[in-house]
Amino acid sequence: LMLSEPMKYIEAYARAGADLITVHAEADDNCAEVLEAIHALGVKAGVSINPETPVETMKYYIHKADKITVMTVDPGYAGQPFIPEMTAKIAQLHQLKESRSLNFLLEVDGSCNRNTYRELLGAGAQVLVMGSSGLFRPDVPLAQAWDTLIQDLDEASHSPAHA
Q1: How much is the average pLDDT of 122-150?
Q2: Beta carbons within 8 Å of 122's beta carbon, 6+ residues apart
Q3: SS (H, E, C) 67-124
Q4: pLDDT above 80: residue 77
């Protein structure tokens, strides 16, 4: 939910059948409370952080998250260029997850494509959100784009940089 005051909407999304609700860390002054409210509804809870938001923002509630999404572009519109500094943030979250034995999925949203797969996976990303730069392109039929995506991901995940 990329909106302010997420607490107003989580119950409706849970009733509608959502099994995971992600809110932006910047959207509520008490993100920990929002995550607890989502869990109270029997739904998994995620937190998304914008490029300018430091990982330390989540230090008191990161253990409550089932998923952390790192935005690697400024949210708002498709087709933006990847912000290279976000690789360090992904690696920092991956290291924090490992050192504290946390169980969240580490997701990346923004400019996930053949030019960034190896870097994102190598930093510890587990889930890549596919949009217009990686899958949905008007000039390529979806079936062909899907086949290319699978091939590119396979190559990236088996490369020495990812190993």
Answers
A1: 89
A2: 161, 162
A3: EEEEECCCCCCCCCCCCCCHHHHHHHHHHHHHHCCCCCEEEEECCCCCCCHHHHHHHC
A4: no
d(CA 86, CA 146): 25
Specify the pLDDT at position 42.
Answer: 97
- 27 three-state secondary structure: helix
CA angle 118, 2, 33 (to 5 degrees): 105
Q: Report how far residue 134's alpha carbon sits from residue 79's, in angstroms, rounded to the nearest whole number.
A: 10
40: confidence class by pLDDT, cuts 50, 70, 90: very high
The torsion of the CA quartet 96, 102, 105, 107, rounded to 10 degrees, works out to: -20
**By C-alpha distance, which of 117, 115, 114, 61 is closest to 90?**
117
